[in-house]
Amino acid sequence: MSIHLEAKPGEIADFVLLPGDPLRAKHIAENLLENAVCYNNVRGMLGFTGYYQGRRVSVQGTGMGLPSHMIYVNELIVDYGVKTLIRVGTCGGLIEEIKVRDLVMGISASTDSAIVSKTFSGMTFAPTASFRLAQKAAENAKNRGLDLKVGNILSSDLFYHETVNGDSYAVWRRHSTLAVEMESAGLYLLAARFGVEALALLTVSDHLITGEHVPAEERQLNFTQMSELALSLAV
Ligand code: HPA
Asked: Which residue's alpha carbon is at the smallest distance from atom 2 of ligand 1?
């Protein structure tokens, strides 16, 4: 048991998928895993362990934003010995080259969060994905005929940005940032701290230039395809 997870020692696999939404964790467990067992219901933040192609894997909801996400990631690594963590989430497209429904891999995650800048006393740390996982994901995506867009993403503390003087994302666009979400920089920071491997895979659910949104049913389909790609990294 840890502070936010009620799993007994050994109940969580060393490879964990991390959706923000706990109901997505349930959906992955019920549809993509075999013999999945729920190990956590504290705060309704569902976690399951099951099997994917014979490999024992877990899927754990984390909530939204760096603070919530980092609580679960920290406990998974420190209290349960997790070695590989794959965030599976949605993001908003920031630049024209990225379209809704695209599959994005964040090889790095910039952030406006004070969590990273404070950790480094104002100096800049570059939260980075595991090269091994990124390479394997790129290979597996190619084999599955998936067009993976790879680059820097923004992990923002805010979903609703206040735009007093125009475009609050302009400087990120100017520096080729593909998409915005709210967790991955925290995941990469902790992976670096504890010497484990992490990767963020995201589907573009909405676009901040065009204002497009992917309808819910279609979002689920894209999410399942991406979750299968994430699970293929365990095999
Ligand atoms: N902003 C932040 N996170 C997101 C978005 C967004 O527009 N879309 C999906 N996750």
From this structure: 181
